Amino acid sequence: MKPSIRNGYTLEVLFIAGIVAISFSAIFIKWSQAEVSVIAMYRLYLANLMLLPFIWKYKQEIARLTLRQWGLLVVAGAALGLHFLLWMGSLRFTTVASSTVILTLQPIVVMLGSFYFFRLHANRAMIIGMGIALVGSFAIGIGDLRLSGAALYGDMLSFLSVIAISMHMLLGKQLREHISAYVYNFWVFAFAASLIALYNVFNDFSFGGYAQSEWGLFILLALIPTLFGHYLFNWLLKYMNASAVSMAILGEPVVASVLAWLLLNEKLTLFQLGAGLFILLGVWIFVRYGKETNRE
After folding, report:
1. Residue 148: HSE in the Cβ half-sphere, 13 Å Cα cutoff
2. Fewer CB within 10 Å: C terminus or N terminus of the chain?
């Protein structure tokens, strides 16, 4: 059922719930001792296992998918899988605060993709906001380089994951105009998980032998940040533009950093805090005052 968009309350509540859900992802990953690619594979396969009982309801829609739509689903899934590999890998080298705050560059990358693929034009506010956010991101990289080269490497992985998830969202916006949230998510998750599974086979990573606590974390990742986070945001793409949905990433570093402080005993340095706020300011200006216009 389509939510009431007139007052916007339903969308706002779901939007906030999704932000809280995805913020737990970094915590669960930090707690796990498994390879990040194994974690990513199982969070997606288990999410699909939870969705599987409903697939019969959508059998006719699946049968109507065109060859082009199947191709786009594969590419969208590959982009999501690559995002998980890169971002989850970044958490092994840098802090939750640094990794998640770099993800806030996502709305800018999504908008740049919209300019290129959908022929949209940026106004001055977008350019100013983009510049401020990029300066903040550069500052985090310089600050983490002072801590260790590994931290900077983690920051770079996080930034590359932004490119991948932005491609995923742009494709998702196009596909969700004609495909239900269930069909889109089920197949994108399946293709992403299968790509990561091939990566695990190639690297000879074990598919089993994990402790019960690890399986518990896999299930929590599938349920909370994947279904209540990524699935929800992909559903919202039907009713909101891709740039607006990507704004959810603005709340993640705030919630994730608080959770990391409470649950992981990670501390925020003043430099990290200042650079992070600089990025948030830039992206806020970009989204709040920026306007999309079609190029002639």
Report:
1. 7
2. N
